[in-house]
Amino acid sequence: MKGRVMPFCRTSTDNIAQDAKLAEMLVAHSPAMQNVVKLIWQVAQYPSTTVLLQGESGTGKDVVARAIHELSSRATYQFVDINCAAIPDTLLETELFGVEAGAFTDAKVSREGYLLRADGGTLFLDEIGSMPLVLQAKLLRFLETRSFRRVGSTKEIHVDLRVISATNVDLQSAVAHRTFRDDLFYRLKVITIYLPPLRERPEDIVPLVEHFLQLHSNGSEEPLQISDDALELLQQYHWPGNVRELRSVIQRGQILCDENIIRPKDLPESVRLAGRNVGQRLDELKEQLHLPPEGLDLRAFLSSIEQKFIHEALEACNGNQVRAAALLGISRDQLRYRLPPRKRDQ
Question: How much is the pTM?
């Protein structure tokens, strides 16, 4: 096992260098993101504290996890990340804990897992809500003892590392539905950092655009630019894919633009349509609707449209019924009345 990593105090020289490093990693002009930055600084000073990052997909949870690692005394060791949703349940245990030679048919040699690779550093468990219950119990034991056994072994291995986990689902709800262990949930959330969606921090859109323009300039003599009207469209868009989507839009614009200037024509149709108000878009949609010659079941048709909008609103709000109802211009009770019985209590 590597030497134990201890908390450290920042000197004035550290402050300048690490402030610059954090500014490079994270764009945080909005008050909400300034609060996130403050929490990053605070938790970075305590290298053994577990951290839970919550927020929608694309909000930058992986960037925050790496920032915590880079600003801590663990920065000289490895940052090891594993996406719990991307690895089949049958393989996740061996990937995490490692495997002893002969443990099963295909285990020809002993192999270390992510826990041992992260010794001294940070283990980032992305999409922790996808971890199967059986493995959750083993992870809890590790967090309590900081020791584990490889699959097929009886030897205890001790490591010293920080665990940061992340999720885009409501773990509190998962606990209530018994798909996530309550004891593990409370062990993971010693410190919880919530990353707000981009639509809730519009002040960050322009500086993020500037950051991605610089990133995708590729060191060319003519830096990548964006026109004022294209930038205005980006500010009007609701960004369901958050920062990740914004980066993809700038990258797309770089490929399609002329003279290194991204213009409205270089933006996706969904972003261009954001420049029209809701009334205009609904009028255009209604113009496309026509009664079929054979007629239709109006009640069933309207019901299907209603259910489609409800489903999209819930998805956009990560299952939050209060926010979804506000998006649809109805009360939460009205929304719940329209939901199938099995979804009303979720």
Answer: 0.75
